[in-house]
Amino acid sequence: MAGIKMPHAIDRNGIKWAADDYAKGMGAEPLHCERCDSTVSHVASFTRDYYDLPSRVRAFFRLQAGGEHGPSCRFGVDRQIVELASTSEGLIESVQKNRYRMRLVAVKDALQKSATRSKDDGVEERTPSASKHYTPNSGRLTAYINTAQRVLKLRALCDEDHDIEQHLELVFERNTTVAWNQFYFDHARQMAAHYTVSHCTNQYPIAIQGRVGKITRAIKDDPTRNVLNLQKLKASANPNEATDGISLEVSVWAAKANWFDGVNEGDEVVVFGLWKAPAPTQTKSTKEGYFKTYTNRRLNLTLAVKSQITKV
Ligand SMILES: [Zn+2]
């Protein structure tokens, strides 16, 4: 099945139902897509508790297993990808009918050209300095990032990787295929993103979804040092040492404070680009609690263009 989560569905009597208000049996089933005849089923709202404060995932309708949207239905992933490909400046290529590929190496090249490094990385990993020199208005990079972000928004609207994976393949250098679960990491899989970044010798751009935490502008009065931290997931126990909690801090750096404009605490965002995983630090717990020590893992990204961070 290849479909986007749908907020509405129509029952056999033609009555339109909102997923938020629906419960099984309320309408004359089976229900169908509001834009085509495909049969859909209801997924009730559920609670996600990755964070200290749990959040609610809204209810939605999805295609029944094995179902397909009509050829021109806007809830079909295939149609969305065809549209995306046509405006992608060649980033997304057609492989065969209804199958496309996105070239991650092109994105990486454009990102690396854009960010002229002002000093050696790794000198001060704790607060990496954002690059001060930019190729002014790199049109191609912006187009690539915008395309990738539209693909990621489409993925965020889907229920599973498979919905998009069957239509859009990801390729890196020498046409190596990158699995979608090694490219897109939602809230629950941020630690998996850390694993991928720390173990991957030839880094390709990846996307991390999360919830915006604190934004700090002009650190130590330096207008080029601005950072946005994602809210931390709950710490998990170190499998080798039960009283050691493993935490992850995801930080996005920007040379311009206004690149974080329009993004607020609590917003859901996808951040896409080349990440770094500096060596973890150890700290003692400052509060009474189960964990006595913490292993603090980190993921850092320095924005080359503002659109690498987008709300979903
Ligand atoms: Zn449909």
Low-confidence stretches: 117-137
Number of domains: 2
Small ligands present: zinc ion
Radius of gyration: 21 Å
Strand content: 25-35%
Mean pLDDT, to the nearest integer, reads 89
Structural overview:
The protein has 312 residues and is of the alpha+beta class. The protein has two domains: 8-68, no CATH class; 105-311, no CATH class. 18% of the residues lie in helices and 32% in strands. The chain has helices at residues 77-86, 104-114, 139-157, 161-165, 190-199; strands at 8-10, 16-18, 31-32, 39-43, 46-48, 55-57, 60-63, 92-96, 99-103, 115-116, 133-134, 168-171, 177-178, 184-185, 206-216, 226-230, 236-238, 241-254, 268-273, 281-284, 293-302, 309-311. The longest helix has 19 residues, at 139-157. The model is unreliable at 117-137 (pLDDT under 50). The protein binds zinc ion (ZN). Residues 33, 35-36, 38, 69-70, 73, 75 line the site of zinc ion. Zinc ion (ZN) binds at residues 33, 35-36, 38, 69-70, 73, 75.
Question: Could you give the topology of this structure?
Answer:
Layout (H helix, E strand, L loop, with lengths): L7 E3 L5 E3 L12 E2 L6 E5 L2 E3 L6 E3 L2 E4 L13 H10 L5 E5 L2 E5 H11 E2 L16 E2 L4 H19 L3 H5 L2 E4 L5 E2 L5 E2 L4 H10 L6 E11 L9 E5 L5 E3 L2 E14 L13 E6 L7 E4 L8 E10 L6 E3 L1
Parallel strand pairs: 9-12, 14-15, 18-21
Antiparallel strand pairs: 1-2, 3-4, 4-7, 5-6, 8-9, 10-11, 12-13, 15-16, 15-19, 16-18, 17-18, 19-22, 20-21
Helix pairs in contact: 1-3, 2-3
The site of zinc ion has 8 residues, from loops.
